[in-house]
Design goal:
Layout (H helix, E strand, L loop, with lengths): L3 E8 L23 E3 L15 E19 L10 E9 L6 E7 L15 E18 L5 E12 L16 E5 L6 E7 L5 E8 L4 E8 L4 E7 L6 E8 L4 E8 L4
């Protein structure tokens, strides 16, 4: 079956809709139309330091050929635009690979800005794409206005498949919703160690670590008193398989 080619447009607020601009390649000068980070945060890629970054969950797996970026185009904050941006990708948000680095010119700060040229960034298969600011144009914050990917949707990504009943890899969380502690049991016969991480819905890593087997079961207690109420994603991998489940934190009554 042939791959279906498409261009995926992601606004930095993770909207999937096209803008209603008369000139769709041009970008406005409103800072509210952009993504801005002024507080470095722990990076989802553990090999990188705390920084300004944005994480895209594409929901499906894609082969990505090119990336196009619009730098921050607010006339009063042009120095917040990114100068060097690393592009990392992952199939499971646990194991990361670097696709390359993009160099962006400072935006002009007018509504005729059509962004940088398409960059060749070959990514063989990814669900998650991570852009990290390595440097800015002198500002203390980092920002981008818009990002586009030229990609092909993959039908069956190698190495990332749903677990089969004959080869169990399952997660149970109790209670869920929870208040102070989430109790997690991972069933993975034949696996000594399971790596896990917890992310919020913006992609920020809240917790990560390893759990070890006890007759095929891996038990984990996550203290959650300091977590804000809301929905989180628990992801675990044994190096070959992936399992994930939503966690729901609620206030204590």
């Amino acid at each position: 079956m042939s791959m279906r080619s498409l261009k995926i447009l992601f606004f930095v607020l993770l909207s999937l809709g096209l803008s209603a601009q008369c000139f769709p390649e041009r970008h406005s000068t409103n800072w509210s139309d952009a993504w801005i980070s002024c507080s470095p945060r722990p990076n989802p890629n553990p090999s990188r330091d705390s920084s300004h970054w944005i994480l895209f969950d594409l929901n499906k797996h894609y082969r990505i050929h090119q990336v196009k970026c619009w730098n921050l185009n607010d006339p009063d904050r042009l120095d917040w635009g990114m100068r060097e941006v690393s592009v990392d990708y992952s199939e499971d948000s646990l194991v990361w690979h670097t696709a390359g680095t993009i160099e962006l010119e400072r935006a002009p700060g007018n509504n005729r800005y059509e962004g940088a040229a398409w960059e060749d960034i070959p990514i063989p298969s990814a669900r998650y794409v991570l852009l990290t600011a390595l440097s800015t144009h002198g500002g203390r914050c980092g920002g981008l206005s818009e990002i586009r990917f030229a990609a092909e949707k993959l039908q069956d990504p190698v190495g990332v498949k749903e677990p089969q009943k004959a080869n169990v890899f399952a997660v149970r969380i109790s209670p869920n919703p929870f208040t102070d502690v989430a109790k997690i049991i991972l069933e993975a016969p034949g696996t000594e160690t399971v790596e896990y991480q917890v992310c919020d819905l913006l992609g920020q890593v809240i917790d990560r670590g390893s759990v070890y087997s006890d007759n095929g079961f891996h038990s984990l207690r996550l203290p959650t008193r300091h977590w804000k109420p809301g929905t989180y994603l628990f992801v675990a991998s044994d190096g070959k398989r992936l399992v994930h489940q939503r966690l729901i934190k609620v206030n204590e009554r």
